[in-house]
């Protein structure tokens, strides 16, 4: 661990599992680099401070309730309005605290989706860098939203779904990060704000690595005048998994269950923390998995199946009849599961964390994206990195069985996919070694932040004048 640098970083995650995990991983990376960490979080989905005794935590009350996360669009829009004042009060107090006089605040790192933080940071003359927790390639697709609007892609007509969008090849209309909504203008408003305030920040940190996404990185670097720091995969910088930032308790018993299986024999199935499927899709998946005859470990999160509490839609005796070939848990220690030698394939919704975690372990994927950037990720997994297959048809048992059988084969297409997945895993390891791209990018980030200080005339550097931060960028 580097010596303490006498600087504090304020970190603000978006309060959703897939955003909290990478932000807290980033916090641990920066702590290891010698910085002190304060996490500013909401009352909703707040992390567990006791799991991070070396960080300080500040909670803001914002009045956006839990139920609203099921309507993601309105949840995000509301959060970006209701958090402004409590966030500003909180940061002002932190900047004026006695601790800040001893250990100045160097910078705010905000989730890019918390775009409201830019105006607050400007107002308080605090440098703001954003963390974008999704893929760089999907960000390039989001940037093209004026095109979606101009072509009227929301609501999406079935007849154009298969059309290629040549500006974003190899994406087709159905791979675009669109959502089903009756209010497309609200969606465009969200994207406009999120993209504008990312551009207004002093830099973007990515949980990705150069070798994986260099074309997208080059494209963005041309459009943005701010530096990009692809320092991922975050969790691989750390010695322990991200279980401490899990909002749901992870069922460790599945590791013992995996221990009883031979290498590459198990299909791991999980759709992350937000996606929901219908009861019919759930039952079809269950039969498809059972009929494939491969053992499976399935995360059925309460709330995954629309209209059901948990697994009551399963035919009675379903698991018992499989005689130990299937296990269902409510939430798993996913990083450990994917790193387990028994896991041979990951049936995933292609959330970015899941995709990257799978890439890091060389586990081939079966992609079943549900919404927004998951669809871009799925297309990249199957057609750019070619480390998985995408379920293109409806969720029906015959198709599920077919695709599992294809990917779990020891020869043919499956072997080629596995070989590519193992090569990508190696690249993910290399970028974190000394001199590797992500390690170098992390060092560049640290130097960049510390350079803000040298431009301030204030001895305690409590407030770093914005123009000095801007100068740091110009010199960069
Ligand atoms: N995860 C987990 N246990 C599970 C399923 C998921 O710990 O049973 C973690 C997973 O490792 C990942 C995060 O939850 O870090 C999900 O993020 P992702 O971006 O894949 O999907 P989202 O939940 O945002 O849709």
Automatic annotation (TrEMBL):
It comes from the Eukaryota. GO terms for molecular function: quercetin 3-O-glucosyltransferase activity; quercetin 7-O-glucosyltransferase activity. Gene3D superfamilies: Glycogen Phosphorylase B. Keywords: Coiled coil, Transferase. This is Cytokinin-N-glucosyltransferase. Residues 407-434 form a coiled coil. InterPro entries: UDP_glucos_trans. Belongs to the UDP-glycosyltransferase family. SUPFAM superfamilies: UDP-Glycosyltransferase/glycogen phosphorylase.
């Amino acid at each position: 661990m580097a010596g303490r640098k006498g600087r504090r970083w304020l970190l603000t995650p978006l309060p959703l599992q897939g955003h909290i995990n990478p932000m807290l991983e980033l916090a641990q990376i920066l702590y290891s680099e010698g910085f002190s960490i304060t996490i500013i979080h909401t009352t909703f989905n707040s992390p567990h401070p006791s799991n991070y005794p070396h960080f300080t935590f500040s909670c803001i009350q914002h009045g956006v309730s839990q139920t609203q996360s099921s309507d993601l669009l309105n949840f995000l829009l509301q959060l970006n309005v209701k958090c402004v004042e409590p966030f500003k009060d909180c940061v002002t107090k932190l900047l004026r605290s006695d601790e800040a006089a001893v250990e100045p605040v160097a910078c705010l790192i905000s989730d890019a989706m918390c775009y409201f933080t830019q105006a607050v940071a400007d107002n308080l003359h605090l440098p703001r860098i954003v963390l974008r927790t999704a893929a760089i390639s999907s960000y390039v697709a989001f940037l093209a939203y004026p095109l979606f609007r101009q072509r009227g892609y929301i609501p999406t007509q079935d007849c154009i779904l298969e059309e290629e969008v040549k500006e974003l090849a190899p994406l087709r209309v159905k791979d675009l990060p669109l959502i089903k909504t009756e209010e497309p203008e609200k969606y465009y408003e969200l994207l406009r704000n999120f993209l504008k305030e990312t551009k207004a920040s002093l830099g973007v940190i990515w949980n990705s690595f150069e070798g994986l996404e260099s074309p997208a990185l080059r494209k963005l670097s041309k459009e943005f005048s701010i530096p990009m720091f692809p320092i991922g995969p975050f969790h691989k910088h750390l010695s322990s998994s991200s279980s401490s930032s899990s909002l749901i308790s992870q069922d460790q018993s599945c590791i013992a269950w995996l221990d009883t299986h031979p290498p590459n024999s198990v299909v791991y199935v999980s759709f992350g923390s937000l996606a929901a499927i219908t009861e019919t899709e759930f039952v079809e998946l269950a039969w498809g998995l059972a009929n494939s005859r491969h053992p499976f470990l399935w995360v059925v999160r309460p709330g995954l199946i629309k209209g059901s509490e948990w697994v009551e839609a399963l035919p009675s005796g379903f698991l018992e009849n499989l005689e130990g070939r299937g296990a269902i848990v409510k939430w798993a220690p996913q990083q450990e599961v994917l790193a387990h030698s028994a896991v041979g394939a990951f049936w995933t919704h292609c959330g970015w964390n899941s995709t990257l975690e799978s890439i890091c372990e060389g586990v081939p994927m079966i992609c079943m994206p549900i919404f927004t950037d998951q669809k871009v990720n799925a297309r990249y997994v199957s057609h750019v990195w070619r480390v998985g297959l995408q379920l293109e048809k409806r969720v029906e048992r015959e198709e599920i069985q077919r695709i599992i059988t294809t990917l779990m084969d020891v020869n043919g297409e499956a072997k080629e996919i596995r070989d590519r997945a193992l090569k990508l895993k190696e690249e993910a390891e290399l970028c974190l070694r000394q001199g590797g791209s992500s390690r170098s990018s992390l060092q560049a980030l640290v130097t960049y932040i510390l350079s803000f200080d040298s431009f301030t005339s204030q001895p305690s550097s409590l407030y770093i004048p914005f123009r000095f931060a801007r100068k740091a960028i110009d010199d960069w």
